[in-house]
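Section 3.1 - Work completed
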Amino acid sequence: MSSKGQQAAHVAIIGAGPAGALTAWLLVRMGIKVTLVERHSDFAREFRGEGMTPGGMAAIREAGLWDAFLALPSEPIRTMQLFARGRRFLRIDMETILPEGVDFIRLLAQPHLLEMLAAKCATFSNFTLLRGTVVRDLVIGDGRVGGLHLGGEGGERSLACDYVIAADGRYSLARKRLRIELEGNRQEFDVVWCRVPRSDPVLPGEAYGFLLDDFFGLAFPAENDHVQIGRIIAKGSYRAFRGDDAEDWKDHLASVLPPPLAKAFATGRDAASDPTLLDVVCGMAPKWSVPGLVLMGDAAHAMSPVGAQGINIALRDAVVLANHLGPLLLEHADGAALDAAAVDFEAERRREVEKIQSEQNQSGAQLLRMQRMAPFIRLVPSGLIGLAGRWMLNRPSTRRFIEGASEIHLMFKPRDPA
């Protein structure tokens, strides 16, 4: 390790999603030089993960960004209604059922979060954001990643750096270049999303789940007073769902919605967004690092949408990775020390991710059981349903979904902007 008087290392981060952007903030404010590479020109594009759980919000608190986060437009989920075959069998008032001290789940459009993180980073002179920049390949020499080959708006060029963090999502170019494949159970379903303007009888803060003969559906608040509706379909059946006519998919969706959503969808049908397909993947890389580079977020462990875990696990990754790499990068540690820290990061995070992914993979069977029980649940007094709901939310597996499966704490102090 070099002396503390030496200039801090230069880190390149691929991907300005939640994982990459929060990691950039944590490292930049330590005094580490960071170049954040983002292939899009702006953040105003379609995002899938908008559910912020208390586990993800804990990472925001640890990063010192809670006040900035609260200033962003978001909507807490205050009620959840569950339907089967068009009839409601459960309504949960989240305020009365959440365990003490647990925050509401918030719906937050990712562009707002990412713009806030980028603006915070930009207050430091040791930060550079390259928008509209594509990573063509990794620079590898003597068995070690030492930079990136870039293209896009800035032209073709190479970027040399001391370490690379790949936060470039489930289809990570870095992971593919390194020939590291995700391993895990094949998922049997995909999700089709669309948005419609919210209208009566759907109220702000309401989320819905509806059980169907095949799979299920869900809906929750979205930005600008909209409702985001998701229809679970068998993997590979999107073409059949879309149909041949431009209106076929709307007819298909409308036919399975419970009454409140059906009415709102009929009102906003002409303003509905085009359907977006989420190819559901749930898997993990067998190793998260090679000399000079570490994978994080969905690049290391693609999460199923079950339980809104993707963005939250990614944010928790950022805090733990900064703990392991930050002090070494600040002191310009040698490559061996950085590589060992990356291995330690994986070991710490793998435990939580394995637990969450295992529970995500079990969710299909649990939903089928709930579907079979729905006619009987409707006969249960609401008071007993409330008690049962409170018990379910306090189960260890449910608490892991809400709060995370491990404690995370930032282990270093920030500095003032340069």
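Second construct:
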Amino acid sequence: MSADENTPVGWEQARELAYQAGRAACAGTEQVPLPDGDGRTLAEPLRARTALPAFPTSSIDGWAVRGDGPWRRVGQVLAGGTPPPLTGDGTCVEIATGAMVPEGAAALIRVEESTIDAEGLVTGVPRPNPEWRLPGEEATLGEELFPAGTPVDPAVIGVAATCGHEFLTVRPQPRAALLVFGDELLTEGSPGGGRVRDSLGPQVPSWLRRSGATVTSVIGPVKDTLDAHLDAIRTALETSDVVCTTGGTMHGPVDHLHPSLTELRADYVVNTVGVRPGFPMLLARVPGPDGRPRFLAGLPGNPQSAVIALVSLVAPLLAGLAGRPFRADLPLVEAATPIPGRGRDTHLALAALDPAGRVATPVGHVGSAMLRGLANAHGFVVVRPGVKVAAGDAVPFLPLPLLPGERT
């Protein structure tokens, strides 16, 4: 295993290393029906299968006219029909919004800006700008609408449907499993007698789904023995691309994760990150039977630290495995109050955003073992090493993972 555990990797570098590890292991494509595409990633460019619009389309309810008025009505055009051409000057057809404009029409007149006399002749004045959409106005035949790597959301699905697609070619969704370590954990009831309630087993799967994974299994608590750890990890690796573990990332008497990784011939992508809270975390590559690596992410046992490890290492890894771009530069917000640094480590400070999403206020209850602050936060203010943030400073902000398909 190739990492110096005594030299923590910088937080921003760790994110990039995790992403690049996932990107290198990204492989394969699959086709899914449009309704199943939300939250997936395009594996190839999405191109228009027809011009958009495919034909001249009325933007109004009114009249399609030819020549000078008044105009004699010779028919009606509704959406979904193909009208005959207008061949005679002084004629018009009634036309509905979304209907195909007949060949030979010179202009459209809105129904509310027209009159019909006693003889049934239509009069009105067309507006200066045409009242219809021209073929190819939105897209031309074969035009690339979205590049490979685009996250699919409902709007992308709608565009795909509009231009004639029934399926999307996407990257396989990364599969993730969760192993909860710790003999001290309870899975039900109230804590007591030296045992605490497991809070990571119920919540981490949802964070994984919000980060783009499908969760294959949640197992635990796993007994604090090397054999139990190895058995659980090997079983989870059979059906997952990423196995997340909670706890056991140190070198204490019941911390068996590092020995397990040695036994599995894994190599570290990242071993220890200079970030607080969140120490210690790790990400390792494990050889897969098909030649493609699998990954193990070691999350600390303290709940807030575990979530920080997840957003720091697992979310970028999953983005890489899904073939989507990674946003290394974070949006800037204004700090509402001073926020201390953590010396040579990056400080991820839980904060809530104002309704406009521009000002971040640190929340309370932010100890590494606490979750109340996390529940009241939108994400983390990133305080870089050696920096002390003053009120009013512009600071990077790392949002918590969004729901699938939700825009940043």
